[in-house]
Protein: Putative quinone oxidoreductase, YhdH/YhfP family
Amino acid sequence: MTDFKALMVEKKQDHTVNKQIRTLSLDDLPDGEVLVNVHYSSVNYKDGMAVLDNSPVVGEYPMVPGIDLSGVVEESNDARFTKGDYVIVTSYELGTSHFGGFAEYARVPADWVVPLPENLGLKEAMIYGTAGFTAALSVIRLEEEGVMPEKGTVLVTGATGGVGSMAVAMLDQLGYTVAASTGKQAEHDYLKRIGADQVLPREELQPEKIRPIDKRRWAGVVDPVGGETLAYALSTLEYGGTAAVSGLTGGTKVPTTVYPFIIRGANLVGIDSVYCPMERRKQVWDRLSKDLNVTDMLETIASEVTLDELPDTLEQILQAKVRGRKIVRL
Ligand SMILES: NC(=O)c1ccc[n+]([C@@H]2O[C@H](COP(=O)([O-])OP(=O)(O)OC[C@H]3O[C@@H](n4cnc5c(N)ncnc54)[C@H](OP(=O)(O)O)[C@@H]3O)[C@@H](O)[C@H]2O)c1
Structure:
């Protein structure tokens, strides 16, 4: 019987949670057609939320968190996959209601499994992970709404985070002029290195009073922050500009008005990586293996943590203390 290590979150009697490295056996894994020998996982903001005492994302306990994994198929009862296939699994219920990627093995439904595209390694795939996938989906949605490099500057909020860093690098690679906003004073050079043309302090996007419409500044916005930042970004979009919203680190309430939409023809598009349909999912990973593959930037953006270091990293990501991407080598 194969024993392996996993980070496990367990609910204690006082309703707080305990996160510890445990030894599990394959029998402990949930049902699913595909058993994956996990090589890499990655740390996303949602993984931080999964280890909170009153987690808004975990459906049941005990849970192995980790919304991302890449690895090699060990066993498959589904004709689409065979032993030895290189695969990626992200989102769905992984790491929230179904044991996830912070473990050396995972058993998952075949419908969640994406074959690793050619030109992408298992490690690279996790440097992107859900954050890179979400950044790519945001960039693709901007393109689909007609935001092309010649239309003007694209703003990326929360720019030193996972989604933000990836979006900055991808937009720069595609030839866009990128304005990156951050709350981290010490990371302006980092943002310039990964492709920002201009770095803005976070406060500039959170003025005391947000006007219904203000001076036009951006043709497009990639926004993993939400809240007042999104309200300001909408009020400063160019005519016909588009904001792609994916996150909530700055809050869930958006104090905006109808004016950006009815006076500037602004578009607000929502980005969902969790239940993104499989056909679309494969297209996004294909782009990530081709023109959105920011190969030269990956070493600057990512660093590795071990399973033992994970609990600390998960606390740091919720405090906005993580820069770029952290990947987990299993
Ligand atoms: N819709 C989807 O499918 C999807 C997929 C992935 C992620 N998300 C969401 O997107 C967000 C970012 O995820 P991530 O994994 O990139 O997280 P992350 O690496 O922690 O990045 C978040 C960044 O947001 C900024 N930030 C934090 N607190 C803030 C505040 N109070 N006001 C303004 N900015 C703040 C920080 O960047 P600076 O210090 O540079 O400002 C931080 O690094 C999360 O809300 C996550 O749940 C959604």
In short: The first strand starts at residue 3 and ends at 11. DSSP finds nine helices and 15 strands in the chain.
